[in-house]
């Protein structure tokens, strides 16, 4: 199987080499080398090398093969596309509004019912398939980014790592805050006694930073806006719980959560740099109606 990417050289890359363009677009060095060794680079339909100088409006054609990628194929079983709500889509990626309670991806062979299973069914008529990039916890709702080809998976991974993809959340939490905004900086690691959980200031803790802003104060609870500066497992849930404000309905960190309560955490916005571009887009996931009133 092959994938072809045709790119028009923009003005800001005029007189750059192909190598510099590939580096700018965050294509990994290993894949750059394989494109070069496989003679799979064309400029204006003529064979080219990574040393070829390109000019504005030149057409650069890159052909990728399965061995270029660690995960070249997407093997998620198609499930019903009925629950799929698309927030944004390009030929390279899709942002879906994930429902609360639905897994982001299957954990076992043959498993269905996850966001990626539903997307596999949604994309099948167009002969496309989903590739995992960004995960949301099962009980979290909101904007979730998915790649549509293996070419952009390492690029999106790098953009997430470099904070060029920024995620914003809303959460209803217990209690009130002394300040209208602030920052949690407790390092996060594995919980000392519960393998399912993470906690602050543990022996293996790594740096973690979360910004918060109070949106609405209720009688007993607060609606807060949360911005991740790092991406530790359960970061928002742990930072809030460890600082006395567990997210309402959190089965792991909210001691008052009831068995049938949803987790009041929603990924409301994704600021996204598009692959092979310097353009940014902001994708919003509408706040669920259940967030409009203070939870019990």
Q: How much helicity do the residues have? A: 10-25%
Number of domains: 3
Largest sheet, in brief, is:
10 strands, mixed
Unreliable stretches, pLDDT < 50, 5 or more residues? none
Write down the overall geometry: elongated
SS summary, helix count? 5
Number of strands: 18
What features would you describe in this structure?
This protein folds into 3 domains: 2-68, Structural Genomics Hypothetical 15.5 Kd Protein In mrcA-pckA Intergenic Region, Chain A, CATH 3.10.290.10; 76-157, Pseudouridine synthase, CATH 3.30.2350.10; 167-267, Pseudouridine synthase, CATH 3.30.2350. Helix content is 15%, strand content 31%. It has helices spanning 18-24, 29-37, 115-123, 152-161, 235-242; strands spanning 2-8, 16-17, 41-43, 46-47, 53-54, 59-65, 86-89, 93-98, 131-132, 141-147, 166-174, 181-184, 188-190, 198-200, 210-217, 221-228, 265-273, 280-284. The strands form 4 sheets. Strands 7, 8, 9, 10, 11, 12, 15, 16, 17 and 18 form a 10-stranded mixed sheet that branches. A 4-stranded antiparallel sheet has the order 1-6-3-4, with no helix packed on it. Strand 7 (86-89) and strand 8 (93-98) form a beta hairpin. The chain is elongated, with a radius of gyration of 22 Å. The mean pLDDT is 95.
